[in-house]
Amino acid sequence: MNRIEQGALAPASPLGALPATPDGAGSLVGFRTLLYKEMLRFWKVSFQTIAAPVLTAVLYLLVFGHVLGQRLQAFAGVDYSAFLVPGLVMMSLLQNAFANSSSSLIQSKLMGNLVFVLLPPLSHLEFFAAYALSSILRGLLVGLGVFLVTACLALPPVNAPVWIVVFGLLGAALLGVLGIIAGIVSDKFDQLAAFQNFIIMPATFLSGVFYSVHGLAPFWQWLSRLNPFFYMIDGFRYGFFAQSDVDPRVSLAVVCGSLVLAATVAIRMLASGYKLRG
Amino acid sequence: MSIPAIEARDVVKRYPRVTALDRVSLRIEPGEFFGLLGPNGAGKTTLISIVAGLARATSGRVTVMGHDVVSDYRTARRCLGVVPQELVFDPFFTVRETLRIQSGYFGLTRNDDWIDEVIANLDLGAKADANMRSLSGGMKRRVLVAQALVHRPPVIVLDEPTAGVDVELRQGLWAFVGRLNKDGHTIVLTTHYLEEAQQMCERIAMLKAGRIVAMEPTRELLARLSGVKMALKLRGPLPPALAPQVVEQSGDRYVLKVAQPADVESVLAACRTAGSQIDDIEVGHSDLEDVFLQVMSDPAQKRAA
Lengths: 278, 305
Description:
heterodimer, A: mainly alpha, 0% strand, B: 2 domains
């Protein structure tokens, strides 16, 4: 007879009593576990989630840096390839922070295993924080990877590292949170792909990754200033060159405002159970 | 009176186009083995989802071990283990990782002894370090059961646990769930296999179109609604007086329902009087399936609820 039939399981818990007590009431074990699980998820496929975006960024640098490098000078006295590095770092960081939370959520929804996270006693804030933090981490890892590799080819100066770290963190947080919203709202992969292809991609590409908006016609300059991604990249680049298209304090305010807005929307969605708890 | 394992009071769940649950109330006592039956779309899974916090009731209140599933969801969810209907899994992890992570979600870090015990009891030992993706359907089902047990919940809900599961595993699973029940766990089961419900459940609720249409101890339900089933093979016509009792007919074979064993005699007498010779006869108790069909087709039952 196999063990499943013997069922030698000890009495689990006496009637009426609580089940196994967690390690201290109000402990963050549940949150920490969800964060760990989310990190393990991308780490187990790090070739795809970290190495691949680094390679893509290097290809951008090689091709654009080589083709445009002789013709363009975005900032006075700055080599075009060096100018490109911070933009590429930030673009990869933003895209991967978004991809992390959004694809994790949509995969779990489609495979049905989101139920494992919805059944336990996790609050909506723990849920939010775990998905946002793991996305920040992946964004920063990819950003660091891109920087380390591209810096070997064209090293930009580092003038104000605090601004670099602040904009890197805030950018990853904003996109991680937008990824949570996109993952909750989307019911299918193609809806998520639409988010990625029609909002995130154009917004990053048109934010001044490859150029300084000062080189644009007034109308396009004006349009660029409506794009929150522009401020993230501009502020991030300020940390390297101590030059920027707008005052970095303005960029900081715009990015912080966007983050607060996005986080409020995401937390409200999670609190109400929108699309997750029918 | 003890605190009920699960209590639902006037639970209503309305979707834009349909009312999935219409004022459902029930009380499941600690230690019970309770069956929730009903055709597809009757609201079984909706009710379970509300108990588990996977869906929110439009109105009404649900508690698990006395804890409200909305206002005191943390305690309510710690008291509840749910085996979902769909064969879901996380393809990134092994069996052991899956169970450790699930423990962590419930706030448990030092839970390896219990995880080992659950793994051993569900015969998952050989696959403990295999990736979830590589497991057969039956093995994945066992992992789902194990996941529902990692935090030792006093109340366990199994939503159609044996759908698409082979006979051997089904029997093993029932023996195991039976043990859990003997050890004091409350078990709530939804199933399409009425035979299983009849064997396992002490009490049964039947749902139809979002309402409870029957709820009583399995034995009483069978006694009250089933009666005796008679199959007759007749040479000659069926006496017209017996026509209302016919529940099934194929050619000259009739299945009749009579209220009690003593009534068998009057059926035989009626046939004799009509001059129809009986070629074959079978008498037996009807089972839960008959009761189920009867309840589901009887409009009076709906009103009675």
